[in-house]
Amino acid sequence: MLELRLTRAGLLKKVLESIRDLVTDANFDCAATGCSLQAMDSSRVAMLSLLLRPDGFEHYRCDRNISMGMNLANMARMLRCASDDDTVTINADDAQDKISDYEMKLMHITSENLEIPEAGYEAIVKMPASLFARICKDLGTIGDTVMISVTKEGIQFFTRGDIRTANIFCRKTTPVAKEKEAISIEMEKPVSLTLALRYLISFTKATPLAKQVTISMSYGRPIVVEYKMEIMDHIRFYLVPKVEE
Amino acid sequence: LKSQARMVRFFRFS
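^ inputs. structure came back:
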């Protein structure tokens, strides 16, 4: 028996909106410890991992581990019927009485989980999620790739396109800066990676879920763009950097 | 800026 109830459907809608450009079908792996999802995009250069903690739900019951294969576009269509403050219940067993009842077909998706080491990034930047989204969107109108460089002074975004170049530098803020505006940097050594902007722009669809975004970078590893949700844990996006030839 | 290695190269399957 699996029963998840959330009194704010809007949260689930936002989560779904942030991932459905990247992935069409995915397994929601539900266990007593929470509901997680890991999926790669079709080109296998980007990946996302999502964790929804049990205490983020008003009701969370999961008697046995269950993997729900869902078509995300269909799920989004279903959720569009719910207002942001409506209650949404997901049952993977017999449903109980309720005011409205939507049923969705589950699908069998074969997927292999990747083991992702979390620690040991050379540079970790925390910055306002809206600022990161704005930069990616703006640079996306100029170039296809962005070079992100982190030094102890700040984070730099550089792109080059047909109409020339753009360069945005965000300086680290002082510790007294407001949380909303703060830019903090933890760094072992300077890192510079080149990334496809269209994926980064797609990741920023998660901006409504969190005030701050955490960007973790190391040479020779995928960049991690993480949004920490207030009550639901996190959503992380991974992107393999471009390699210069 | 051609090659973009695949995700599986970086993480192990569990």
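Chain A has a mean pLDDT of 90. The interface with chain B takes residues 40, 44-47, 112-117, 145, 194, 196, 221-222, 238, 240-245 of chain A (CB under 8 Å).
thumbs up if we can close this ticket
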